[in-house]
Amino acid sequence: MSSTSEIETHPIKTSNLTLLSLSALGIVFGDIGTSPLYTLKTVLALTGGTVSPPVILGSLSLVIWTLILITTVKYVSVAMRVDNDGEGGILALMSLLGLKTTRRPIIIAVGLMGAALMYGDGAITPAISVLSALEGLNIITPFFEPYVLPISVVILIGLFAIQPKGTARIGQAFGPVMALWFLVIGVLGAWGIIQHPSVLLAVNPLCGLDYLFSNGLTGFLVLGGVFLCVTGAEALYADMGSFGAKPIRLAWLLLVFPSLILNYAGQAGLALEGAPTTDNIFYRLCPVPFLVPFVLLATIATIIASQSIITGAFSMTRQAIQLGWLPRLKITQTSAKGYGQIYIGTVNWLLMAVTVGLAIGFRKSDGLASAYGIAVSATMLSTSVLLFIAMREIWNWNLLKAGIVAGLFMIVDAAFFAANLSKIMKGGYIPILVAIIVYGIMYAWHQGTKAIVAQLREEVVPIDAFMAKIEEKKLCRINGTAVFLTRTETDTPPVMIWHVRQNHALHRQIFILRVSMCSIPRVKDSERLLIKALGPGIWRATAFYGFMEHPDIPKLLKKIRNYGCDHDLEDVTYYVGHETTIPREDGKGVPKWIEATFAFMQRNALHIGEYIHLPPDQVVEIGRQIQI
Question: d(Cα 132, Cα 295) in Å, to the nearest integer?
Answer without folding.
Answer: 10
